[in-house]
Design brief:
The chain contains 22 helices and no strands. It has helices at about 25-35, 40-50, 55-65, 75-85, 90-105, 110-120, 125-140, 145-160, 165-175, 185-195, 200-210, 220-230, 235-245, 255-265, 270-285, 290-305, 305-320, 325-340, 345-355, 365-375, 380-390, 395-405. The radius of gyration is 27 Å and the shape is elongated.
Length: about 400
């Protein structure tokens, strides 16, 4: 299964352009009103200036309409004023208009328009726009995918000290995307972004310490960074901190703490955390054993396509643990995980075909799934040998053809 690394995305910039002219003017009065929080007066003073073509006033009206300060919130009106300022070359307005097209806020979503406005702003040195333009190239949105272009724009933003750009640049080095793979460079940029408080970077820095990537393995340091991310509400950080407490890595083992952090992440819909909560209820770790609760949380994670949950739930249906025994449902769950390339599920599915449980007995299918599981699941290799001794040469040839043709894909 190919690893997809998350990237940071810059949000809309909603700071006002309040640089006052040398001499007192309506623009100066509007800036003063906004400074003291009298946004209604600021809007009243900016509107005629904006109508006369003042780019700062147009941009500021865009912000006011977007936030609903001093006027009723009107996202379409915000886009209108940002566009007027953007067309005059205001880099903040260009960035915001790009972000609105990117997200489909106040305008119809359009990757092409988002790309165009991000580029105009990025070329003027706007770090947020550079980061998001890099993201467009990174994911091939509105433009042909180009790792080299993504790297270029991330680097420009990173060198301005913009933390999301720094994190994304670190991810490029980590994966060796558009640049030679370099854990040390990845660590450098991820650490800088983490130090600026980017939760995604803090969590990932924790993973680098936990796995010894670019630095000596240090579980205590990993826990430190997981906690920083978790305290900001990062579901990934909460999940990893919970796992650290569960396994006693970098911290004294504490099932109650593990359950606390798993639950916080699970409540954000993190399937790995839902699975963790289910495990804790199944085992009675940090909480009273409760199969009904375990089933509920396994099902949540399985419904999101999380392979370990699909397997565990499949085992329950296969054996009748906590549910009425249902071999057909076990096969269904194993298949969903197996189609994602999850070796344990592939092995279990092979076993169901071999024994004819929930499906008609089929040695060709058993051979297929055992063979797919074997590189990652040692016992499956033994099963391949055992099954093959009961197959005809024609059946073996058919199964081997299926192995060659198989590709991971959703079974649903």
């Amino acid at each position: 299964m190919k690893l997809t690394l998350k990237r940071a995305v810059a949000a809309l910039l909603l700071m006002l352009n309040l640089a006052a002219p040398v001499a007192a003017s309506p623009l100066d009065d509007a800036a003063a009103a906004a400074d003291r929080g009298d946004y209604a007066t600021a809007v009243r003073l900016w509107r005629p200036l904006a109508d006369q073509g003042d780019a700062d006033a147009q941009y500021n009206l865009g912000v006011m309409n977007f936030t609903g300060q001093g006027t009723a919130q009107d996202l379409a009106e915000a886009a209108k004023w940002f566009r007027k300022a953007a067309e005059q070359g205001d880099l903040n307005a260009q960035y915001n208009l790009g972000a609105m097209y990117d997200q489909g806020v106040g305008v119809a979503q359009s990757d092409a328009d988002a790309l165009s406005w991000y580029r105009k702003s990025a070329e003027q040195g706007h770090a947020r726009a550079q980061t998001n333009l890099g993201g467009m190239y990174d994911h091939g949105r509105g433009v042909a995918k180009s790792d080299a272009e993504a790297l270029k724009w991330y680097r420009l933003a990173a060198e301005q000290g913009f933390a999301p750009g720094q994190f994304n640049l670190g991810m490029m080095y980590y994966a060796g995307t558009g640049v030679a793979q370099d854990d040390a460079e990845a660590l450098k940029w991820v650490r800088v972004a983490a130090g600026q408080g980017v939760a995604m970077a803090q969590n990932f820095l924790g993973k680098m310490y936990a796995n010894g990537r670019g630095t000596a393995q240090n579980h205590a340091e990993a826990v430190k960074w997981y906690r920083k991310a978790a305290d900001q509400g990062s579901a990934d950080g909460q999940l990893n901190l919970g796992s650290s407490y569960l396994d006693g890595e970098g911290v004294t083992q504490n099932f109650a703490e593990a359950m606390k952090w798993f639950r916080l992440a699970a409540e954000q819909g993190k399937p790995g955390a839902e699975y963790g909560v289910a495990l804790m209820y199944e085992r009675g770790n940090g909480v009273a054993q409760d199969y009904a609760e375990a089933l509920k949380w396994y099902r949540k994670a399985a419904d999101r396509g999380f392979p370990p949950a699909e397997v565990n739930l499949g085992v329950w249906y296969e054996t009748g643990k906590g549910v009425a025994q249902d071999h057909a449902e076990a096969v269904n769950l194993y298949r969903k995980a197996a189609e994602q390339g999850f070796a344990v599920a592939q092995n279990n599915l092979g076993s169901m075909y071999f024994r004819g449980l929930g499906v008609p007995k089929n040695l060709v299918q058993a051979y297929l799934w055992y063979t797919l599981a074997a590189p990652q699941y040692k016992e499956a290799g033994k099963s391949v040998d055992f099954v093959s001794r009961q197959m005809t040469p024609a059946q073996i040839a058919e199964a081997q053809k299926l192995v060659i043709e198989w590709k991971p894909g959703a079974a649903r």
